[in-house]
Write a structure and sequence with these properties.
Helix content is 43%, strand content 19%. By secondary structure, the chain is α/β, with parallel strands linked by helices. Helix 6 links the parallel strand 6 and strand 7. The radius of gyration is 25 Å and the shape is globular.
């Protein structure tokens, strides 16, 4: 009887252990496979096209991600969305990312959205004044741009490389891109710094691109994770899925760019005047920006007084430190 009792007891105990293990495995699988809600912020820009394609083609759904994409009308509003925790991921640039971190709000770069090669994306200086033919003609000429922006960095870099001194580079503060574009078109300013979509429109409307950054890799746009996102226990799991979605969409666009031109024009608000001729960029798959790319931007920000001297970037994982 004792032997039978022991056998029955052992069998019951074994069943309990197996049941507990099954429950634990099931819970783990549920945690890993449940739908993840992710809020993503962006401006109306071509840099974000892979995620618009991913939304259109249901790539997020395939990975169990409920993606809520919010388009902001200005960089200021996007920054507020990042710092308030309204968005988990944001498509922005290195200047914005470093500025957010410097204000004691943790963030990290997860991958480059455009700019692993010089011809990916375009920023340049445009003029509608016949007297402005080269960068040297902009010596002591007010140029429309926004302070503490990637476009100001492009302006300073291009003009410095052309031989202008710091004192000869004159900035006219025009933060809003539509206002800046119209001011140049109407000759209220002799030149301004604009992104590729507006450069293309300006060229169609008779303006001249004096110089751009397609010959040297000066700028990168990046996808960043907010402090709120980085604190989540399952961040690494979600981040892997987010990268997988981006890579799939980027490869899809690169294989058939014309298929998504209509979507790009709709989402990035590209004028019908350039819709047919506008060339879609080659989109990189996920990789972090090189140390020198970020260091160059940080050095410029520090020289302008936009950033604390002790802010540093770590290329190994895309994080910042003080």
């Amino acid at each position: 009887m004792k032997l039978i009792y022991k056998s029955v007891s052992y069998l019951v105990a074994l069943i309990c252990v197996v049941a507990v293990c099954f429950v634990c495995v099931a819970c783990g699988e549920t945690s890993q496979n449940k739908t993840q809600s992710v809020n993503i912020g962006t401006l109306q820009t071509e840099d974000f096209l892979p995620y618009w394609v991913a939304q259109d083609q249901a790539y997020f759904n395939e990975e169990g991600i409920d993606a809520n994409i919010k388009t902001f009308s200005s960089a200021t509003e996007l920054i507020a969305g990042i710092t308030s925790g309204e968005v988990d991921y944001a498509m922005t640039d290195i200047v914005v990312t470093a500025s957010i971190f410097d204000k004691n709000q943790n963030t990290a770069i997860e991958w480059v959205t455009l700019g692993t090669e010089a011809d990916q994306g375009r920023f340049g200086i445009m003029s509608n004044d016949p007297s402005i033919q080269t960068l040297k003609d902009l010596r002591n000429v007010p140029i429309g741009v926004g302070s503490n922006t990637m476009l100001e960095y492009v302006m300073d870099t291009l003009l410095t490389q052309a031989g202008l001194s710091k004192e000869e580079i004159v900035k006219e503060e025009i933060q809003k891109l539509p206002v800046r574009y119209q001011s140049t078109l109407s000759k209220q300013v002799k030149a301004s710094v604009l992104p590729g979509t507006l450069l293309a429109l300006g060229e169609v409307e008779g303006m001249r691109t004096v110089a751009d950054d397609t010959k040297e890799n000066i700028t990168q746009s990046v996808m960043i994770a907010s402090d709120n996102m980085l604190k989540k226990s399952d961040f690494e799991h979600i981040n892997t899925k987010m990268k997988k979605v981006w890579d799939k969409a980027a490869k899809e666009i690169n294989g058939n760019p014309e298929k998504y031109k209509g979507l790009l024009c709709e989402k990035a608000n590209i004028s019908d005047k350039v819709k047919d001729s506008y060339k879609i960029s080659v989109y990189p798959t996920c990789e972090l920006p090189k140390q020198e790319w970020v260091d160059n931007v940080l050095a410029w920000m520090k020289s302008k007084g936009y950033l604390s001297e002790n802010v540093k970037y770590k290329a190994a994982d895309g994080t910042f430190s003080k």
